What does this fold into?
Amino acid sequence: MRRAKISIIGAGFVGATAAHFAVMKELGDVVLLDIAQINGQPNTAPAGKALDLYEATPVEGVDSKVTGTTDYADTANSDVVIITAGIPRKPGMSRDDLIATNTKIVAEVAGKVAAQSPKAVLIVVSNPLDAMVYVAWKASGLPARQVIGQAGVLDTARYRSFLAAEVGCSVEDVHALLLGGHGDDMVPLPRYTFAGGIPITQLVSKDRLDQIVQRARDGGAEIVKLLKTGSAYYAPAAATVAMAESIIRDKKRILPCAAYCEKEYGIGGFFVGVPCILGSAGVEKIIEIDLDETERKMFSASVEHVKELVKAVKM
It folds into this structure.
């Protein structure tokens, strides 16, 4: 029986850490790919990181082949492709400049990986996420169910970790749901948040809950401020691999993902964070939940911002 194959495009902090998590979970064979040259010199970093990671497998007792490459042919017949390629927003760079630069990168990557692996499920991590997952879908030509954006799992993980610390319970016992765009645009749903089956509103005061929600929204910025020279990578990589695991092992987990919504929630053809069942086919079902008036207004505002991001995309 053929082992699953996961290709990760972009061998930076997020990509390399995702490779690490995927190998330690023994999800399958991993290919780590990056650009062919840096400053006119051959880029051997993916090969070095892959070799280092492979040499860790006997210690961990996992059987995963790890390949570092700059050749898209090595990604052929992947089951899941994780796209982390792109540049971070730099000081003085406008939102439109970032979108223009990363649109070119993500479009090229998506087209190349889809040509090699037309049955793969693409998980997009590149920012701005809500626009880049749309770019990957258009450039790849793949069915919408095979293209997913990673944001909700990360935002929910931040939210859950802060709530667990507040309640003083295990993170495993906190279950939460968020909708909408990534980061500032996320829509928290306290009515759907529980700790050990107990509504979070019975355990945390409204004022404190509002503070925790805001901290989750600012989670990425808080880490950037602390690191000073980089951005988060452990939690984003773990969240991405959780999605990959549900797909590869056909676990059919319900996870918040940026999925293509047409009739769902009346969105009309955009990738927005919603609860999804992830299985071997990708997004196997989008779950529509009841929203009260306040939640619906917040969600609508988030969706409108996502639409504005997509309008800025030039392909």
Notes: Residues 152-311 form a domain with the L-2-Hydroxyisocaproate Dehydrogenase; Chain A, domain 2 fold (CATH 3.90.110.10). Residues 223 and 232 are 6 Å apart (CA to CA).
